[in-house]
Task: structure prediction
Amino acid sequence: MQSFIPPKRTLMGPGPSDVSPRILEAMARPTIGHLDPAFQVLMDEIKELLRYVFKTENKLTFPVSAPGSAGMETCFANLVEKGDKVIVCVNGVFGNRMVENVVRCGGEAIVIQDEWGTPVSINKLEEELKANPDAKIVAFVAAETSTGVASDTKALCALAEDYNCINIVDAVTSLAGIELDVDGWGIDAIYSGSQKCLSCPPGISPVSFSERAVKIIKDRQTPVQSWFMDLNLVMGYWDDTGGRSYHHTAPVNAMYALHESLLVVKEEGLENSWKRHADLSQKLRDGFAEMGISYLVDKKHALPQLNTIIIPDHITDEAAIRTRLLNEHNLEIGAGLGALAGKVWRVGLMGHAASQENVDKCLKAFKAVMN
Ligand SMILES: *Cc1c(COP(=O)(O)O)cnc(C)c1O
Result:
């Protein structure tokens, strides 16, 4: 065996997205101890930068040392206790995972189903909130990566608040790609991932919790079942008040990468990053339209960072097309998931991958393999 040398790909699928050389370079810097004072400075800066991208003053804002799914589990494991009623709005794969989390925490999941490819229905949520006055939490996915749909996070959180529920929001694909305002929209618990619009290598999950959520966690009747994810323990490590105590060993070099990726967003400006995703998505959409390829999602609700296109009828073997894109053009796109398998392709324009160069490359490659 020899050292592994990865092929050079262009990552335009549902994540991971292209990582910029600048971030890879940051990641290759020498490892230092995770309790080194210099590392603690880095931890503080990461928290500050995360507050910037989440648009929050939340004290409890930090990166979980594990992928987006662990951020999801951190939210549910800490906020759901046995018997708690949680309304979960499902409009794709990741909503179903939320249901699974509620059940495994001993909660009672009230599941609202919306058709895949459409946003979470505000009316249906209101009906369930009326029917379940004892519900404690409303959970939904802000940007469903399985379908390419954005839901109205602001309106859903406001509605939950009207019925005295806190909310849990999946922003794995949203963060830095579309508008998101944790404090302005009253989000209580939110998780994201490093490998989508932050364009970091996978494996880190930024999270943030409101004061209200923190109080619920502190007032729990029972300890959090997961030792690793128990925020009461993790905060002894990530908190800046008082001495940091060993909880686990942070993935030091992955934190260098996260710090650099957040700096990149800050330098560009969060709003500019949202706009770049929107503008380039429009260019991609125009290009696909010229080829006669249409989108699954109504433009009003379509995510710029995840473009779900309908596979034309004349394509009988869609997997062969994806294989050709990969082998002949080094281009990775995503297949359809679940009910959409074989019906759609998912073309990501996330973070560093959202560039004019990639839009051109992608359209050119599609033209070549579809002929
Ligand atoms: C990718 C993704 C996840 C899971 O993140 P992992 O890092 O793969 O664990 C969760 N929710 C959404 C919406 C995602 O796109």
